[in-house]
Amino acid sequence: MRSVINWIILILVFGFFWFVSYFLMDFAFNIFGFQNKGFNFFTKSEDSSYTLYRNSEAFPDMRIHIATFNADEDKSYNEENCSIAARFFQLQINHVNYWCEEGDFTK
Do 57 and 96 belong to one domain? Predict the structure, then answer.
């Protein structure tokens, strides 16, 4: 039983130090401005978001937020995924329009 407890403590300690080192590397990369896609806890390299909207059958001028695609990739990645989702939804309901706009959700 004592050996199991020791293994659990070892795993928890190792996991804690791994997380701290991962966070510190992300912090250092952001402070010194290095380009690194491997460590990206809190920041995105650029604003590459795309947002999916739809209108309403009853109110065609209405703009309703459906989803925001904001993976930390280049713009074409998020734009393509948003376009795929818009086409998919458009196939389901023909009398409602779906479209993508560059950037995060705005009213």
Answer: yes
